[in-house]
Design goal:
The protein is 37% helix and 19% strand. It is built from 14 helices and 13 strands. The relative contact order is 0.12.
């Protein structure tokens, strides 16, 4: 399965390039950030250009992966619908065509005849971009594509991507908001069990090029299947709790006050906050924090699948918070609380059926789980 991992790395880099192109090319940037008013406010393609960028990345990944691995056709899932209505009321299904000119023609139809924007997007989508990774190429793994499925989050942290704040990194790489929080996430899981087995995280806006050529990205990947656990992060940080004696807890700024109050003593009064679900789990992967806790069901399978697989490769994981609290109350183990990715929730409507409804705990060192759960037990 080294071939699949290598392909996912390449398509993630092409996706990252599309994200950068949308911000760097003036005709696309204007569509990305412009807020139409008055007579133009109903032109969905303009208001939802950010969604079109998401959809194009999603469909590009689907197209490229299925071209090489047809066994995955019908098993690559994403956040976005690929149906759009242009300014003339025409419904257009966005796909990536075999030929660049055909994709340009289709996109021009979505974009009400904007040939310049359509051509820029089509060129980025159809470029032949290969991302080489020697460790990924050497991987030996007995996985069959027919046993796998994929979740894509084409641009996780969309609000940060649209706002475009060029935040500087703080505290050894931690960045609480801004473009670095926007990620491309591709997670692979087993169809039969929902276990995440492969994850690719691409950060298109990791740092500014020293020669003034715009943003440069970075990627992280992990594979966890049977006795194989391999991650591209070869250097491991010392867990925060071992350095300070306190658990470093990362939350959403919108987290409930009761959760903040319960976890504050664990972190010695220094709770941390950041934007983007994927980015917050990436911070756990990188050892910037010990744990990410979310009490609400506001993340989805496409948010957590890729980083979950990477955490598993490092000995960590992502658990259902509600299940952990239930197990704590019953005096049982939390091992069965790990998230899976193959089944929708019964009774869920629309995207909500794929929500991580019980909230999540993302961790690298399992010793923090009991501390977090004990602190929250009876408080939420």
């Amino acid at each position: 399965m080294a071939e699949l991992l290598q392909l996912l790395l390449s398509v993630s880099e092409k996706a990252a390039d599309v994200a950068r192109v949308c911000r760097q090319e003036a005709p696309l940037f204007e569509l990305l950030v412009q807020e139409k008013t008055g007579a133009d406010k109903n032109k969905k393609f303009v208001q939802d250009f950010k969604t079109l960028a998401d959809v194009l990345i999603q469909e590009m990944i689907r197209h490229d992966v299925c071209a090489q691995f047809p066994e995955l056709t019908g098993f690559i899932h994403g956040e976005e619908s690929n149906k759009f209505e242009n300014g003339h009321g025409e419904s257009v299904t966005v796909t990536v065509c075999a030929q660049e000119d055909d994709t340009t023609t289709l996109l021009a139809k979505v974009l009400d005849g904007d040939q310049t924007a359509a051509s820029l997007l089509s060129k980025a989508i159809h470029q032949n971009l290969q991302l080489r990774d020697e460790l990924a190429e050497s991987l030996q793994l007995s996985l069959c594509p027919a046993d796998l499925a994929i979740w894509i989050d084409p641009i996780d942290g969309t609000s940060q991507y649209i706002e475009g704040k060029e935040a500087e990194e703080q505290d050894e790489g931690f960045c609480p908001s801004g473009l670095p929080c926007a990620l491309v996430l591709i997670g692979v899981y087993l169809r039969a069990t929902g276990q995440p087995v492969m994850g690719v995280i691409n950060q298109p806006f990791n740092h500014k090029d020293s020669k003034g050529k715009g943003w440069k990205g970075q990627h992280v990947w992990g594979v966890s299947y049977e006795d194989v656990n391999v991650c591209s992060l070869t250097e491991r940080r010392l867990p925060c709790q071992q350095k300070s004696g306190h658990v470093s807890v990362l939350l959403s700024s919108s987290e409930r006050p009761a959760v903040k109050d319960a976890l504050e003593p664990l972190s010695n009064g220094a709770l941390m906050y950041a934007s983007g679900a994927g980015y917050k789990i990436l911070c756990v992967i990188q050892g910037l924090v010990d744990v990410y806790v979310l009490s609400e069901g506001s993340t989805f399978k496409w948010d957590s699948c890729a980083p979950h697989a990477v955490l598993r490769a490092l000995g960590g994981g992502v658990l259902d918070l509600s299940e952990c609290l239930r197990a704590h109350t019953n005096g049982s183990m939390t091992r069965g609380a790990e998230l899976t990715y193959h089944k929708p929730h019964n009774g869920g409507q629309g995207v909500e059926k794929w929500a991580n409804q019980g909230g999540i705990i993302a961790y690298l060192d399992s010793r923090v789980i009991d501390k977090v759960v004990a602190a929250l037990a009876g408080k939420i």
